[in-house]
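Table S2 (continued). Query chain:
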Amino acid sequence: MNFIKKPYLLAIDGPAGSGKGTVAKLLSKKLNLNYLDSGAIYRLIALSAMEKKVDLENDKNLVDLIRRVDINFIDDQTFLNNTNVSEKIRYEAVGKNASIIAKHLKLRKEILTFQRNFFQGDGLVAEGRDMTTVVFPNADLKIYLDASVNERAKRRHKQLMLLGKDVSIQNLIDDITARDKLDKERIHSPLSIADDAFVLNSDDLSIDQTVNKILKLI
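Corresponding output:
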């Protein structure tokens, strides 16, 4: 698509399960731009910390850890120290721990340059919790993609059922609510709506409808 002036930067924030990852990935392909899943970075660090038994409350040890790990995103696959962990980082426990470590300012500062380096070439579609407010405050377009807790729990339940995992929707609602609380109430770079962001609720929208609405905004 050639209707945008490049380099172009699209930043998308939103809570867990709002669909921003799938939407951002599709938009990056349609617009031929780089893609950044910032949450995957925190999940990778959380996974590495879990494997190495690093205290999630010790920001110094977490910073030391990220300086030693090798993170790569290749063809929609995620690698930690040359091992494909694309499936592992989507485990519920990893997601919860990613929200825990994301509160540490030293860790966030360490990751910031790594994130911003994704903006190169024709541009970038970046998604996460603080893309529009902290990492890319000067983005060409900012989207806050939202969805109700119940809708997000239903989507996650469907994903888990397809993987053969039977988890109660109520447990998922509780987990998502707890993660929202962590993300929105942390002191540093909390999940919030940028003043100049377009708020889009995806409760009654399919993935394609959500993508098309954002393309119209662009």
